[in-house]
Amino acid sequence: MIVNKSFITEVLRTALAVTFVIISIFLVMRVMGFLSQAAEGLIPVGGVLSLVTLKMVSYLDVMLPLMFYIALIMVLNRWYSDHEMAVLASAGLGTFHFLKPLSVLVLILGGLVTFFSFYLTPLSLAQGYSLEQQYRQSNEVSGVITGRFVEAKDGNGVYFVEDYNRGSGNYENVFVYSKSFDREGVVVAKTAYRTEDEKTQDQFLVLVNGSRYEGNPGSPDYRVVDFEKYALRIEPKNQTKLYLPVRARPNSELRESDDPKLKSEWYWRIAKVFTLPILAIFALALSHVDSRRGKATGMVLAFLVYLTYTNMLAYTVALIKKGEAATGAPVWFVHALYLVLACYCLYRRNYNLPLIPEFNLGRKRATAS
Q1: % the chain with pLDDT above 70
Q2: Cα distances (Å, whole numbers) of residue 310 to 115, 197, 199, 314
Q3: Which of 47, 204, 309, 327 has the fewest CB atoms within 10 Å distance of its CB?
Q4: How far apart are CA 321 and CA 215, in angstroms?
Q5: Among 159-163, 194-198, 284-288, which is the least confidently predicted range?
Q6: Among 301, 281, 285, which Cα is nearest to 351's?
Q7: For 163, phi and psi rounded to 5 degrees?
Q8: What is the spatial distance between Cα 187 and Cα 178, in angstroms, rounded to a whole number?
Q9: Distance (Å, rounded) from C-alpha 188 to C-alpha 173?
Q10: Residues 58 and 287 sit within 8 Å (Cβ to Cβ)
């Protein structure tokens, strides 16, 4: 049908526009955060794009229902403002008619949200966490900025690189200060480069044509050694086990676990999928535009519904996480409550009734008297 096709097309087009805007804002905020970490030498500048992409993917399962909700409200508000809904109603196509194209959209986007919530989000979080830990625990000089002193992670060393030759991949005019036990050492070299031991995979900074000053100044054991090459261990291979955060755990581990934290994450992944159809019904019911009140009333009410709904879900999930709820009954209760409210609002909107019934008790008493 032409109306259904036009409705689906406009909602998808609007959803893409809203997605582009929200993702652009998200990218700007996250890029600034990772660039500040790169400036501190915690991560390399080249890894910022990978980390931002993985972080963005991990939030899409939460962002997609909101963007779909906003797109639905925007399209339906425009149709009401342009009197297209009034024309369709006069042709016998009421509010209930849009449940069919809306169900098609919900099935498509619901499958996408399910894929993100149960697969892509945990995978991207695990990859991002592993990559960030690798950057932080690997070669310390990979994030050093030329012309700036950078302190080592353990606080027992300082690096300074005057310049970096991109053609040769070498650092130029390198200064390294290190402190171990009761001795201090300073190493200066004209050039340096990074290397990795093939057997142990330990990271080394190889300094070329420099000098090492070792010992405490003024003590008799103070030494100055000139060298052609000097390999300085930067960071030994990390042998500790990587513990993933709860949001990055696989579904099988969450489903079979009795840990309240893991159970809460499992119910939260399910809850994100069920919010989509309920929000779609609310959007269909609350997008009516009253010419006397304007668009603001419906928009404010729609966003209040979204905020209360998602916050109540988050609260019930927090109860499970704290161990105050043994099952997911509170989560299902919130879904059921808002589903009933959504169907009630849609029913009254379809018959052009006010969402809140008016009880004219004073008029009834006057008539009876």
Answers
A1: 80
A2: 20, 51, 51, 6
A3: 327
A4: 54
A5: 194-198
A6: 285
A7: -155, 165
A8: 8
A9: 7
A10: no
What the block records as the tokens of 278 is 């309920």
Number of H helices and E strands in the chain, helices first, is 10, 6
Say if residues 282 and 76 touch (Cβ distance below 8 Å). Answer: no
Partners of 195 in the β-ladder: 204
How far is 280 from 286, CA to CA, in rounded Å? 10
39-50: b or e for each residue (b if 16 or more CB lie within 10 Å)?
Answer: eebbbbeebbeb
Termini Cα distance of the chain: 55
Q: Is the pLDDT of residue 105 over 80?
A: yes
pLDDT of residue 181: 47
- What is the C-alpha to C-alpha distance for residues 103 and 276, in angstroms, rounded to an integer? 10
Query: Strands, DSSP E only, in 89-169?
Result: 149-151, 157-165
The Cα 206–Cα 171 span in angstroms is: 10
Q: In 3D, which of 355, 224, 340, 244 has the Cα closest to residue 290? A: 355
Rounded to 5°, angle at Cα 47 from 42 and 49? 125
CA-CA distance, 351 to 95, in Å (whole number)? Answer: 9
Cβ 139 vs Cβ 235: under 8 Å: yes
At residue 325, the 3 state secondary structure works out as coil
Rg (CA), the chain: 30
The amino acid at residue 121 is T
Alpha-carbon distance of 243 to 74, in angstroms, equals 43
Q: What pLDDT is attached to residue 103?
A: 92
Nearest to 208 by CA among 184, 239, 231: 231
SS3 assignment, position 151: strand
- Cα–Cα dist 351/331, whole Å: 31
